[in-house]
Amino acid sequence: MKSSTNALKWSAIERLATQAIQLIVMLFLARLLGPSAFGLVGMLAVFIAISQVFTDSGLTAALIRYTERKEADFSTAFYFNIFVGLFCYLILFFAAPSVAKFYEQPELVNLMRVLALTIVINSFAIVQRAKLTIDMDFKSQAKASLLSVVISSGVALYMAELDYGVWALVGQALSNALLLVILLNVFHPWLPKTGFSKNSFNYLFGFGSKLLTASLIDTVFKNIYQIIIGKQFSATQVGLFTQANQLSLMPAMTMTTVIQRVTYPMLSNIQNDVNKFEDTYLLTLRLAALVVFPLMAGLSISAEPFINVVLGAKWLPAAELLTILSLAFMLYPIHAINLNLLKVKGRSDIFLKLEIIKKSLITVMLVITIPLGVKAMCIGLLIHSFIAFFINSFYTGQFSRLKTTKQLVALLPIWGCVIFSGLLTYILFWYVATNYTSNPAVHLAINLTVMPLIYISLIRWTVNDLYKQILHVIFRKKVELKNG
């Protein structure tokens, strides 16, 4: 428990600190560069993301799950990652003119060819991160990530001030990737000690191939909105959607990553102890909801004053999208934790099946909502997220006692606290806006103060065991913990 708590602490430091820095820098860059620059990079996001998935090919998850891993397994994954990374870069290099023609944006040719270099650079760090995760050494990862993010953020801001425009975002991505590879090898040096092993590859890819297919489907559909908006509308519309999407996805994904990176290797080690495994999983599910649900609800309520104060009036059309997407991503950690259970159980085939089912549903949503505009497309995402919960939890229940009803019973008290505190805050916000002041800074301050106070009070009263668990993790207090 002590090692897991320490790992959780360092994982949280890395994710929260790096994401906080990236968020602040992104907001500054948004003011300096405007929606169009973010839209151009957003148009390329799907191609870079798909290439990254191919480069990993599910081997990282396979290495972490495999309890009898050998040096040949790491070396094999390392060589494979680099080869695929180079291959993907060459494809994108020669495909760049076609992508620019598709979007009718000539400047995308050079942007893609330079930005795609991050794929090759990142391929040198995949095995390094896997080894550190297996060892639950999140401290080294935290130091490397923080330094690379700080320096690359400085590069981006400097380039933006010199009027490099969209190239400031490219400079940030490249410098961050390069620095991360260098620093990981400084803090935890590693080089392959054997050659490529066909047997190792067959085992690793046998497990990872289904995750690769599932990840490809997931990645395409995560970025398909930018593709459709970029083709049907404009770079500015892509920028508005991309900003709203990033602002809503970042807190949900950050907290989920913190939890998953620690629980996946930990739960892989206790997968044969059924009672301990399922109790720990349920506790993880509740802790994720405890933190992420109010965060996303608060962001949804505060979307308009937040955008107005932080980004300025030119970004205000993104506020409505942010309100909807924040609610859509509220369940993101619950989805991820349910799917994590299938990976730990070795059921990558079911994982793939689920992705196909859910993405078929998204396709239907897109067909219905595209003619209605970007707002309708976001509402479709919200509806899909709640349907996906029932699909994921149904299949999780087939391989554990964590049935849909059991998950709902565990999550409903937290949901109730979020809804009640959110409604009270919104009523106060509306009353002040109607009778006293229309200043968005005042509205934002009210939301950021009132909702957390109400929510924490309700949580302490309704789910006290989770409240104590959070105190234990943050302050290392000796409290009596229950799985509830």
From TrEMBL:
Report the leader peptide range.
none
- Write down any Gene Ontology CC term: plasma membrane
Report what the protein is called. Lipopolysaccharide biosynthesis protein
The organism's superkingdom is given as: Bacteria
Origin organism of this chain?
A: Pseudoalteromonas arctica
How does the protein's chain sit in the membrane according to the entry?
A: Multi-pass membrane protein
Provide the transmembrane region boundaries: 40-64, 76-96, 108-130, 142-160, 166-187, 281-303, 315-335, 356-373, 408-432, 444-463
Q: Which family does it belong to?
A: Belongs to the polysaccharide synthase family.
Q: What is its main location?
A: membrane
State the compartments where it is located: Cell membrane
Kindly state which keywords UniProt assigns to this record, in alphabetical order.
Cell membrane, Membrane, Transmembrane, Transmembrane helix
Q: What is the lineage of its organism?
A: Bacteria, Pseudomonadati, Pseudomonadota, Gammaproteobacteria, Alteromonadales
